[in-house]
C-alpha cells in the first residue's frame, strides 16, 4: 500500500469510524459469542499473497464486530468509562504517522518536552500543589504511564529503593535480602487488584487496611496496623491510598492518612484512577484535600477525561525518587545533553523503554474541548448518576449501597445475594444494557457506571425501566428459582 | 467535535500524514533544538474555551515538527528500525475508534481471540516449535506485550515464582526471603539494559556472562558461571539469551546454551527483539535453531515487521507459568466463562491490566503484505546492509567491527576512540544523516542500521559518500583536533 492508496483507504476508515460511533445504538451492546468463536472463522495461517483492503474491511464486520463489547454504546454501564473522543483519535492518528520512539530526549525532543508541559497543564487543572509540577526548574513533575497498575508499581519500586537505602544506612549490618523480607506495604481492603500485583512483582508483603462503614480507610486504622507491624519487627514503607475505589467509588481519608505516613516515613501514593478526572471541577477538588502529604499521585485521563487509552498520568514531588530506582544508561542510549541536568529521559520513570507520543492526545483534547468543555462533560455524568440514584431510591424494593459522589451508583434488590446474582444475570443475558457487579462486605451489589460519551437522560431512563421490569419478573417467579 | 466534523478533520489528517511520509526527505532528519525549546512556545496552562482544529494543526508544524527526530526519513540509520506502515496505521485508527479495553475475555471477546490466533500465525511464520502455539487445546501460546522490556520482566517473574516454589518444596525450612536472596539470573554482557532493569525490579541478582570474540555467549561460558555460583551457594534460575544484540546484532549460541539451561533447571528466555522478524525468511531460520530448549521467546514486530509500535510478541511453552505468577481475580472482573478453562484472560500474562486491540495491526499487516511481501521487505534491508558493508570494506581507512548478518553494520575508522567520537559528532552535527554509536569491548564503534521502510540503495550510497567526506576532512585536520 502506497501513500496514495492510504489517502483513499484512510478516508474510508475515517467514515467507517464515524459511522460506527453515530450508529452504535443499532448494535447489541454485549456480544453473545462463545469462547473460541473466532478461530474457525479465519484461516489457520497467514496468507502468502497480499489481500485487498476491501476484503479485510468486510471481515471486520463479519468476524470482529460480533465479538466486540461496545464500550461506547450509551447502554454500556459496566466497569468504569474508558475515553473515546474525536480530538484524541485525531492525535493518535498523527502520533502513529510520526511513529517515533521517545525513550530519550534525543530520540525525539518534542515527545519529551510536550509531555512535561502537558503534565503541568493537567496538574494545574486539578489544582495539584506546585511541588508536583516540573515548571522550568522544579524537582517534581509528571509522566504518562500506560496504566494505573504501572503507576502503582513504579511508586512502590521507588519507595522500596528509598526504604532499603534508609534502613541500610542506619543498619549497615543488614543485607538487602534481610531488609526486603521485613518491608511491608499497605492499601485499603477496597483497593484495586493492581496493588496486590505490584507487591507480588516487587517481592514485598502487602497488607490490606480495614475500611470503615463508608468503605474508606481512616488514619487510625492505618496507624493501628503500622503499630502492630512495627512491634512485630516489620518495616512499613508504602501506603497506596485510593480516591474512588473500583467497587464503590469510596474515598480514603487522605487528610488523616497523610500525616500518619509522613510521620512514619511511609511513601504515600494516591491512586485516583477514575475519580481524578473530576478534580478539574472546583466543586470536586475538596476530594483531593490532603494530596499535599503524598509523594506520588496518579489518575487516568483515559478513563474519564476524553483522552483515549492509554494515558495514565502520574506526578511525583521528587523526580529523583523515580530515576534513582531505575536509572541504567547503556552507551547506545547516551546523547549530548544527557549530563547537562536540563533534560528529562522518561525511560527512567517507567518499566518499558519505548514510548509513543501520548501527550499529543492531551494537547488536542484540552485545546479542542477547553477546560470548560471538559468540566461540563464531567458534570453531565455526575448528574446522570444522581438521576439514576433517585430512580432507585423511589423503588422500595431496591437499596443504594454506597454514597453516590461521582458517576457510579451501587445498588441491589433488598434480599439475598442469590436474588441479585440472578437479577444481574438476567440483565446481561437480555443484552439490552451491560452492567457488572461487585462485593461490598458480604453483599453482592450491582454497579451502574455512567460510561459512554454520548449517554443522556433517555438512556438512563431506559436502563432503569428495563432493570425494574426484569426485577418485577424475577420477584414474581416461583421462589425456588430465586 | 461531532462525528460530521470528525469526517472532515479525519480526512485532512489522513492527507497530512500521507504528505508527511511522501515528503519526509524535505525535512531535516535530526532536529537542532535545545533542551527546553518547547515550553516557551505554548501557554502556561490549558485554555478555558475550545480552540479550532486549524489552530492546532498549524501549531503542529510550528511547535512539534521542529523537535521531531524523523525515524522514517530514509537518512535515519540510528538505533534499530521502528515499524511504520499504512496497513498498521489503518488498523490503529480502527482500534482507537472501537476503543475497548480488553483486560478479560468478556470485556471484548474479539480482542482476546484475535490475539491468540495472530500469535499462532506469526509463530508459524517464524517456524516456532508447536509447543509454543495455543491452537485449540495447546498448553502454550503467545501474547502481545508493550515492549521487549516487559516480556523479559514477565519471563523473569514467572521463572522466579517457579524457582521459589521448587526450592521451597525441597527445603521447606527456607523462607521466601532466604530463597530470593540466593537466586541469580544471567544474561550476556552484550544484553540489552532492560535485563538489568528487570533484575532490579524483581529484586534478584543479575550476572553478565562473558561473550566470545563474536560477542556471543557460548555454552561453556554459562556452565562455568553456573558452576561457580552453585559452589557459592547461589541458585541459578534464569538465563536471557539474546539473538541479535543491540550493540552489534550478535547471536548467543542457543544450541549449546539450551541444554545447559534444561539440565540446570534454568528458565531460558530468548530475546530476539530486532532479529526475530527476519526469521520469517527460511534462509534466516537457522539463527533460531535451539529455540526448542527455551521456555519463552520474544521479538518485536514493531521493530522490523511493519507493525507499528507497540507490538512485542512473546510465546511460552506453558501458559500456566505466566498466569500462576500473576493471577489475581477480584470479583469485579469475574465473568461467566472464567472457570470453564476455555478462555484466555490476557491480564494474567502481563504487568498492566488494560489492553488495546493491538492484534488488529498484525491482522491488517499480514494480510495486506502477505508473507511474501514481508519477506521481500526483510531481504531488501539485509541486502542494503551488505551494500554498505562492501563500501566500508573498500575504504581501507575503515574497519568492520562485527559480522554483518542482518540489517546492521558496525564500523569505525582505524584509529583512536577519540577519532571515531569526533567523526560521529561531525556526522550528527551536519544533520544530513543520523547514526548512533556503541561500545564493543574497548572500542567506540559507529552503528549503521537500515531503518526506514522507504530506504533504497541511493540513500545508502548518499550516506556513505557523506561519511567518507567527513572522514577525509577529519583526517586532514591538524592532529590536535583529533
UniProtKB/TrEMBL annotation, chains A, B:
Species of the source: Sphenodon punctatus
Protein name in the entry: Aromatic-L-amino-acid decarboxylase
GO biological process: amino acid metabolic process; carboxylic acid metabolic process; dopamine biosynthetic process; gene expression; kidney development; response to toxic substance; serotonin biosynthetic process
SUPFAM superfamilies: PLP-dependent transferases
Keyword Lyase: yes
Keyword Lyase applies: yes
Cofactor list: pyridoxal 5'-phosphate
Entries under Pfam families matching the protein: Pyridoxal_deC
Swiss-Prot/TrEMBL keywords: Catecholamine biosynthesis, Decarboxylase, Lyase, Pyridoxal phosphate
Modified residues (N6-(pyridoxal phosphate)lysine): 303
Similarity comment: family membership: Belongs to the group II decarboxylase family.
InterPro entries, A to Z: Aromatic_deC (IPR010977), PyrdxlP-dep_de-COase (IPR002129), PyrdxlP-dep_Trfase (IPR015424), PyrdxlP-dep_Trfase_major (IPR015421), PyrdxlP-dep_Trfase_small (IPR015422), Pyridoxal-P_BS (IPR021115)
Amino acid at each position: 500500500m502506497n501513500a496514495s492508496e492510504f489517502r483513499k483507504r484512510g478516508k474510508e476508515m475515517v467514515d467507517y469510524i464515524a459511522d460506527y460511533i453515530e450508529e452504535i445504538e443499532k448494535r447489541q451492546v454485549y456480544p453473545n459469542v462463545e469462547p473460541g468463536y473466532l478461530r474457525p472463522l479465519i484461516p489457520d495461517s497467514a496468507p502468502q499473497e497480499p489481500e485487498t483492503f476491501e476484503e479485510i474491511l468486510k471481515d471486520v464486520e463479519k468476524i470482529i464486530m460480533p465479538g466486540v463489547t461496545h464500550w461506547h454504546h450509551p447502554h454500556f454501564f459496566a466497569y468504569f468509562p474508558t475515553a473515546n473522543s474525536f480530538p484524541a483519535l485525531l492525535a493518535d492518528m498523527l502520533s502513529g504517522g510520526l511513529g517515533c520512539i521517545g525513550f530519550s530526549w534525543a530520540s525525539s525532543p518534542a515527545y519529551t518536552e510536550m509531555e512535561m508541559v502537558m503534565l503541568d497543564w493537567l496538574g494545574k487543572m486539578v489544582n495539584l500543589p506546585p511541588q508536583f509540577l516540573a515548571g522550568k526548574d522544579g524537582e517534581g513533575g509528571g509522566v504518562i504511564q500506560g496504566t494505573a497498575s504501572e503507576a502503582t508499581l513504579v511508586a512502590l519500586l521507588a519507595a522500596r529503593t528509598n526504604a532499603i537505602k534508609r534502613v541500610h544506612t542506619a543498619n549497615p549490618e543488614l543485607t538487602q535480602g534481610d531488609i526486603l523480607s521485613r518491608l511491608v506495604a499497605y492499601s485499603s481492603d477496597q483497593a484495586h487488584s493492581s496493588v496486590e500485583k505490584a507487591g507480588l512483582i516487587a517481592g514485598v508483603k502487602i497488607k490490606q487496611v480495614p475500611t470503615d462503614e463508608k468503605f474508606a480507610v481512616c488514619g487510625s486504622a492505618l496507624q493501628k496496623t503500622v503499630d502492630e507491624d512495627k512491634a512485630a519487627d516489620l518495616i512499613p514503607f508504602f501506603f497506596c491510598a485510593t480516591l474512588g475505589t473500583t467497587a464503590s467509588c469510596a474515598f480514603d481519608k487522605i487528610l488523616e492518612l497523610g500525616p500518619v505516613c509522613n510521620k512514619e516515613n511511609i511513601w504515600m501514593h494516591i491512586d485516583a484512577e477514575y475519580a481524578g478526572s473530576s478534580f478539574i471541577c472546583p466543586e470536586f477538588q475538596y476530594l483531593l484535600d490532603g494530596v499535599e502529604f503524598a509523594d506520588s499521585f496518579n489518575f487516568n485521563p483515559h478513563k474519564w477525561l476524553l483522552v483515549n487509552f492509554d494515558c495514565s498520568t502520574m506526578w511525583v514531588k521528587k523526580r529523583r525518587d523515580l530515576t534513582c530506582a531505575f536509572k541504567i544508561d547503556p552507551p547506545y542510549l547516551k546523547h549530548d545533553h544527557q549530563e547537562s541536568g536540563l533534560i528529562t529521559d522518561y525511560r527512567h520513570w517507567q518499566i518499558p523503554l519505548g514510548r509513543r507520543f501520548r501527550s499529543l492526545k492531551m494537547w488536542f483534547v484540552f485545546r479542542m474541548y477547553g477546560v470548560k468543555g471538559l468540566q461540563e462533560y464531567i458534570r453531565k455524568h455526575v448528574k446522570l448518576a444522581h438521576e439514576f440514584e433517585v430512580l432507585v431510591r423511589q423503588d422500595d424494593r431496591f437499596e443504594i449501597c454506597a454514597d453516590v459522589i461521582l458517576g457510579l451508583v451501587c445498588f441491589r434488590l433488598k434480599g439475598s445475594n442469590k436474588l441479585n446474582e440472578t437479577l444481574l444475570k438476567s440483565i446481561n443475558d437480555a443484552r439490552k444494557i451491560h452492567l457488572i457487579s461487585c462485593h461490598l462486605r458480604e453483599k453482592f451489589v450491582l454497579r451502574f457506571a455512567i460510561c459512554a460519551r454520548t449517554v443522556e437522560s433517555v438512556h438512563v431512563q431506559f436502563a432503569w425501566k428495563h432493570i425494574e421490569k426484569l426485577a418485577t419478573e424475577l420477584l414474581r417467579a416461583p421462589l425456588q428459582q430465586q
